[in-house]
Amino acid sequence: MIKLDDIIGDIIFISFSNYERYKDIGISEPTGHFLLKGYDQLGLWLEHPGIVITQTKDESGAPLPVKEHSREEFDADFVVTWDNVNTIMYYPEREGFDFPSEFKKMKLGFSFDTKDEDRIK
């Protein structure tokens, strides 16, 4: 059995019950592959595949010439509420989808560097 905690940081396939909910943030397909960032009582937190804002108007609202348009790309996460999760598929051991856990890389807990002469007998 796979637990969500074990696949945070990996890429998953998800199908949405109603993908129309995400059209405002640029998600226009009923399925996709997304980086799982976490989960909570609301649902799954996924990394957005890319937000791009293009500035096409000046401060007064007048259109800018095409050569003066500016683009800003930035990272974003979004939530898929539990009621909108149709299917999740995980790819264990698939290159580029299954990344090492950050927790497994960390050495948690205590360790002691002792030498024989420093030990209490």
Structural commentary:
The chain has 121 residues and is mainly beta. The chain has one domain (4-49, 75-118): SH3 type barrels, CATH 2.30.30. It has helices spanning 4-7, 102-105; strands at residues 11-16, 31-39, 43-47, 51-55, 70-74, 77-81, 85-90. Mean pLDDT is 82; it is low at 102-109.
Widest β-sheet, arrangement of strands: 6-3-2-1-7
Named at the architecture level, the CATH assignment is Roll
What fraction of residues sit in β-strands? Answer: 25-35%
- DSSP strand count: 7
The low-confidence parts are 102-109
| CA-atom Rg in angstroms | 22 Å
Identify the overall geometry: elongated
State the helicity in percent bands: under 10%
**Distance between the amino and carboxyl termini:** 46 Å
Q: Please indicate the count of domains.
A: 1
In the CATH scheme, the class would be Mainly Beta
Major β-sheet annotation: 5 strands, antiparallel
Number of helices: 2
Helix-strand topology string: HEEEEEEEH
Mean pLDDT: 82
- Secondary structure class reads mainly beta
**Which topology does CATH recognise?**
SH3 type barrels
SSE arrangement:
Layout: H1 4-7, E1 11-16, E2 31-39, E3 43-47, E4 51-55, E5 70-74, E6 77-81, E7 85-90, H2 102-105
Antiparallel strand pairs: 1-2, 1-7, 2-3, 3-6, 4-5
Short précis:
This protein has 121 residues and is mostly beta strands. It has helices at residues 4-7, 102-105, and strands spanning 11-16, 31-39, 43-47, 51-55, 70-74, 77-81, 85-90.
